[in-house]
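Bumping with the actual sequence this time:
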Amino acid sequence: MNIDFANLQLQYQKYKVDIDASIQSVLNKSNYIMGDEVNELEEALKEFTLAEHVIACSSGTDALLMAMMALDIEPGDEIITTPFTFVATAETITLMKAKPVFVDIEYDTFNIDASKIESAITSKTKAIMPVSLYGQPADMKAIQLIAQKHNIKIIIDGAQSFGATFNDKKDSCLGDISTTSFFPAKPLGCYGDGGAVFTNNSDYANKIRMIRVHGQTKRYSHKIIGIGGRLDTIQAAVLIVKLSHYKDEINQRNDVAEAYFKSLEGLIKKPMIKSNRTSVWAQYTLRFNERDLIQSHLKKIGIPTAIHYPLPLHLQECFSYLEGKKGDFPVSELAANEVLSLPMNPFLTKNEIKYISENVNKVFNEIAL
């Protein structure tokens, strides 16, 4: 059986007529930068999330960078985050010449352990940056209380969780500034790089809009230092179409996750979604003691898998200046050695899920013996 991990081609074929027409409309107008479709997308994203302000941008990475620029993060400031995430989370903190301060994760959700955050706060702490890993928000109630107590800001790295909720509130509205990514393989993806910033603060929103266009208030008038952070109009055109199907796709992703959960045997360590949260299932990630051996067996029978992520950030060479070492964050380190993501997309068939699950069960039991 030939199984596609994300199946972007099938998704395109399903929406091809509308996507092609939307792209063609941009080509006909030849307004490739900040065209009408960008504003149309932002309005649609506002309606979907209920955020007061949405700024579409060039990538999820640039969304984080612009969020920190809007909060006036300065060299030497500290931002608390998780070491078990994609490098962009802490990379952007470092680009601001601030310091990433890592806090270990929860075993069951893979998200930052809120109970460990307060002990990491110092006089230099300016923000907490939780990551909604694999599609599920962190414990935002606890994090919000900590932030309020210490008068620090929250920046949500929601690159994997657009549309997920905490206490029935979209995670795009859970931080002082929240971000997401529209990288093609994300739950809502475009056909290149893209992202968005969300906030209910008008001052932050106005500043981010300036930052997005090199700090301009009007053409060639630059009030602040900014970046080239605009979303291409063609990408906006693609996202407008895909967003119209996104609620259905979230439901389909949850159906796939539920089918996996029922089909995989009880001894396999499955993902856990907290009762006050929903996930958009950017990944369906299991834990195995013999992860690499299981991955190798599955590859031989045509089941693609991925490891998100094989090395925590405190052990990455680029962060060696932080002097992290093995044993600093044991829960993150254990996760890096155990996690294995199965194919996850809205279009997995019952037969494909059955084939994957049966073989995961079989390989797991053979290796366990």
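The tokens above came from a reply further down the thread. The mean pLDDT is 97.
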